[in-house]
Task: inverse folding
């Protein structure tokens, strides 16, 4: 049977949808690619590694294959004291963050300096590398760029990790994975709003604060305080520990779930954590039979809880 | 179902895939709303179930959303497409076997996908939470077969023109393919930063705007004329609706990120376009309500029309909210609050669900040739859905206004949490009512399949009197 | 239905074509559903016009911003005037602040509405005073700075491009987004009008095949 072919309609449809995608996808991308990464953008990218969510290198979101963030007070090679420096250690095989793999996403200037002076082109993923963020000048303006410390200072990942204590090692990249996996961002946004709530939650981010971060996990449905600058408001590891184990310990009205399961089986000193006992004690405390709540165990240095606390405290 | 997967096409009864899709969608609706009710309980009573990551809010929230969107809503759409597209083309479904396979792969794929999501394998992007390999399974294992079936049925139709509903069906499956593909580019290609954030919301906006809204509306374009016997009021308004969906609904994605540092011009553009989504809404609502002229008794008598018109009426507050809440003048107050949660439920649980429920009610009766088992239970379902939803919507809207006030007056957040608590309990009550209503629906449909009055050939379900 | 280039919006089909269309449409059974082809009811057309206008009007108001540094520049200027110092001596901070507001009101400020919306105390003003003066000395646009507690910070709006290649840090009242919108809406209206006019004549009502 002959039927109308809807030629005009089909073409109009193509034009309409194509035009819409042209305006909403192509045109903004022209603006967004011009953005130069800020210092915060560079640091976040280096801290979080390649992906903050599901990825081939970490399919079950255990926080594997992520870079470590360390605080250096001495040059790991010579031992000479240096200014407190954050270094981002990518062990052999840990996938590099996007700004190392595709330097152009850092934007003009930052890209040039990172390649010329920072030598990030020489970084080799199979051997691992250590990166730092350095201040430089470009066209007379001060900007920050990434420096491949393995090439410029000869710091290898092993050397750096040997030089720092557990206290100065932060599992921020793995912690971001926990943040995504545990759905923290369903309630805690990472986006103080542009027009409001700077007062409580700090200044909103700028365009260049995320180059190299994925996912950005802004969140949309805020049921709890914004966390973009939580590390500046509250830097107490002790408080975070209690709050994650059972939020009602530090904030009786909190509706946050308990994240005690992130502690795993053993605490920092290798003792098995007796959750049933703890819960029973806590119930006693909540019903007034105990004066003090039970002690919260210290998370082991390779536990999910430790990762998450490191991440949250890194949000400055 | 399994016996038809490898049967000869001729041996598969016509409409099987629609029946399987219909029953699956109801089951997913029960699962999805059950999860929703459970999640709401956790927000009201944080120590409700603790100690296991599988029952923590952060693991279950996205499972609820995805079960409802891809299980209930999209499967109900597929069900509608499987029986409405051929009916309007005066033909049979292009491939019943492909339809049955589609339903099987969809159910299996969604079960795997939700299991992954539940265990925490998430991409960390709202509405596109599924890891990329699951996105690819959905894209090529679920959407492409569905699209092929719909398109081939439309192409092989035995009518001159294409009726409004089928324009929407055919274009929506195509647009869904584009949206799923483009929207997940950040995951395939590791895009980062604002590009990622923007594409996340481009996806989230368009999956609602170019898939859920138009297909739900298209269903109403079928059910209302079919059941009332009135022809569609105007083909012209249908055109206006169709083109304005393509043009205006596909553009305002940036209005979800009004408080982020995206270029201001993009927000200005998106904001104007965002108000213009009222154009398709006005066209849709006026067309449908004018079609009802002289047949308003069906709104009372007939359960499918009751569902459909309630859904159509809900499109009015939905689009008034949706159009205006995203402008700079209002967005600063309610962005990121419970108001938005209420709005999202008005869209999915109010507007769209009511339209789809009508299609599933009507379609299952038509294809199975069985009159609905119990009108009383159907009315029970309707009222539980409506009242439960209303409680939910009102409580979350109030909670959102409280949060908004707390935000701009910079009240310590814990005070906002305390103030919201009663509304969180109301939300849980409302959600549980919806869940209860759906359980009843599942029972009613199951009994319809087994014991409903047989509809004689040549008659339509609504022409038969109820025996109970 | 041939295209009429000289008159695209009017009378696109002649009688013969209408007749053909009628036969065509009558011949098809759409499962009991046939479209009537009424024209858009006039109230709906008005409603659509209203929507398009209000879409622009609603997007303009730039409410809900944090206070800009510019709205307090006049307060800062008035701070050291003898009148304020007298008030300070007589009635303390509160009286001094009231006096500042009075002085600024006398001077017909263009920020009056914003000043009313964002009152501040004398102590708060003291905290931002030096920062505002410093910014004034560096000749930047104070409207691009917002007050956050005791800090004056560059707002993070990514507005229009300025001549020097940087971004304006404020919400624009007009930018290329609106311009694109105007073209976009115009094309849409034209395309839909043409499409709708090309449909068979509205006076012709298809019969509803006895369903």
Result:
């Amino acid at each position: 049977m002959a039927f109308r072919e809807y030629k005009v309609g089909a073409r109009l449809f193509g034009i309409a949808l194509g035009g819409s995608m042209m305006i909403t996808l192509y045109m903004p991308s022209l603006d967004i690619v011009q953005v130069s990464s800020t210092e915060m953008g560079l640091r976040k990218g280096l801290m979080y590694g390649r992906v903050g969510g599901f990825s081939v290198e970490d399919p079950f979101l255990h926080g594997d294959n992520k870079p470590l963030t360390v605080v250096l007070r001495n040059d790991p090679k010579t031992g000479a004291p240096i200014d407190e420096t954050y270094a981002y250690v990518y062990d052999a095989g840990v996938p590099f963050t996007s700004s190392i793999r595709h330097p152009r996403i850092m934007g003009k200037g930052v890209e040039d300096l990172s390649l010329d002076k920072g030598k990030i082109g020489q970084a080799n993923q199979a051997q691992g590398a250590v990166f730092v963020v350095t201040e430089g000048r470009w066209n007379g303006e001060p900007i920050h760029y990434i420096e491949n410390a393995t090439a410029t200072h000869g710091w290898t990942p092993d050397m750096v990790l040997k030089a720092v204590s557990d206290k100065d090692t932060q599992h921020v990249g793995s912690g971001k994975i926990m943040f995504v996996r545990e759905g923290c961002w369903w309630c805690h946004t990472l986006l103080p709003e542009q027009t409001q709530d700077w007062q409580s939650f700090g200044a909103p981010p700028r365009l260049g604060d995320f180059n190299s971060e994925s996912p950005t996990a802004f969140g949309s449905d805020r049921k709890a305080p914004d966390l973009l600058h939580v590390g500046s408001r509250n830097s107490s590891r002790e408080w975070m520990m209690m709050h994650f184990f059972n939020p009602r310990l530090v904030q009786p009205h909190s509706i946050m779930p308990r994240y005690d399961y992130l502690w795993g089986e053993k605490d920092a000193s290798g003792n098995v954590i007796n959750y049933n006992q703890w819960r029973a004690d806590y119930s006693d405390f909540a019903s007034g039979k105990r004066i003090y709540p039970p002690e919260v165990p210290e998370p082991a240095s390779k536990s999910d809880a430790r990762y998450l606390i490191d991440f949250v405290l890194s949000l400055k | 179902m399994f016996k038809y997967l490898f049967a000869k096409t001729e041996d598969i009864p016509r409409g099987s895939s629609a029946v399987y899709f219909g029953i699956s969608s109801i089951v997913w609706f029960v699962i999805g709303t059950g999860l929703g009710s459970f999640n709401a309980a956790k927000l009201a009573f944080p120590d409700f179930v603790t100690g296991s990551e599988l029952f923590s809010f952060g693991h279950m929230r996205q499972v609820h959303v995805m079960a409802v969107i891809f299980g209930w809503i999209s499967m109900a759409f597929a069900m509608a497409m499987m029986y409405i597209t051929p009916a309007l083309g005066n033909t049979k479904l292009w491939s019943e076997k492909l339809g049955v396979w589609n339903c099987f792969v969809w159910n299996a794929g969604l079960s795997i996908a939700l299991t992954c999501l539940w265990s925490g394998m998430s991409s960390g992007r709202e509405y596109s939470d599924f890891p990329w390999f699951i996105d690819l399974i959905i894209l090529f294992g679920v959407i492409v077969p569905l699209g092929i079936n719909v398109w081939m049925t439309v192409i092989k139709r035995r009518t001159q023109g294409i009726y409004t509903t089928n324009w929407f069906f055919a274009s929506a499956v195509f647009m869904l393919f584009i949206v799923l593909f483009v929207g997940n580019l950040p995951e395939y290609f590791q895009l980062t930063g604002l590009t990622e954030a923007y594409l996340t919301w481009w996806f989230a906006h368009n999956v609602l705007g170019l898939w859920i809204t138009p297909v739900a509306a298209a269903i109403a374009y079928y059910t209302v004329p079919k059941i009332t016997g009135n022809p569609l009021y105007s083909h012209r308004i249908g055109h206006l609706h169709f083109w304005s969906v393509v043009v205006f609904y596909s553009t305002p994605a940036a209005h979800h990120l009004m408080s982020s540092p995206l270029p201001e011009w993009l927000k200005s553009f998106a904001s104007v376009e965002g108000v213009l989504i009222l154009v398709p809404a006005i066209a849709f609502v006026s067309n449908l309500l004018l079609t009802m002229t002289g047949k308003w008794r069906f709104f009372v008598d007939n359960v499918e029309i009751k569902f459909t018109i309630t859904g159509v009426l809900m499109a009015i507050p939905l689009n008034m909210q949706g159009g205006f809440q995203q402008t700079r003048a209002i967005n600063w107050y309610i962005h990121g609050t419970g108001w938005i949660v209420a709005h999202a439920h008005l869209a999915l649980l109010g507007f769209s669900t009511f339209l789809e429920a009508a299609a599933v009610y009507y379609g299952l009766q038509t294809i199975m040739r069985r009159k609905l088992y119990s009108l009383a239970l159907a009315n029970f379902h309707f009222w539980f859905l409506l009242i439960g939803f209303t409680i939910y919507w009102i409580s979350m809207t109030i909670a959102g206004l409280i949060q908004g006030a707390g935000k701009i007056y910079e009240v310590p957040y814990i005070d906002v949490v305390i103030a919201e608590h009663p509304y969180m309990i109301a939300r849980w009550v409302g959600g549980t009512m919806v869940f209860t209503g759906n359980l009843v629906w599942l029972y009613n449909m199951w009994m319809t399949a087994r014991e409903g009055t047989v509809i004689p050939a040549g008659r339509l379900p609504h022409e038969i009197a109820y025996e109970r | 239905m041939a295209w009429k280039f000289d008159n695209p919006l009017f009378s696109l089909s002649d009688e013969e074509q209408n007749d053909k269309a009628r036969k065509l449409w009558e011949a098809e059974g759409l499962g009991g559903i046939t479209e009537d082809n009424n024209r858009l009811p006039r109230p709906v057309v008005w409603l659509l016009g209203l929507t398009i206008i209000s879409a622009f009007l609603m997007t303009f108001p730039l409410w809900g911003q944090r206070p800009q540094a510019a709205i307090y520049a006049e307060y800062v200027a008035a701070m050291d005037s003898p009148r304020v110092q007298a008030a300070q001596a007589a009635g303390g901070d509160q009286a001094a602040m009231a006096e500042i507001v009075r002085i600024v009101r006398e001077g017909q400020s263009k920020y009056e509405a914003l000043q009313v919306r964002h009152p501040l105390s004398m102590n708060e003003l003291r905290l931002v005073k030096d920062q505002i003066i410093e910014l004034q000395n560096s000749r930047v646009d104070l409207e691009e700075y917002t007050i956050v507690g005791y800090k004056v910070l560059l707002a993070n709006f990514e507005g229009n491009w300025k001549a020097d290649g940087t971004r304006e840090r404020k919400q624009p009242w007009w930018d290329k987004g609106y311009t694109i919108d105007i073209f976009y809406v115009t094309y849409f209206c034209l395309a839909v009008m043409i499409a709708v006019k090309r449909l068979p004549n509205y006076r012709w009502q298809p019969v509803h095949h006895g369903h």
About this structure: The domain at 178-314 of chain A is CATH 1.10.760.10 (Cytochrome Bc1 Complex; Chain D, domain 2).
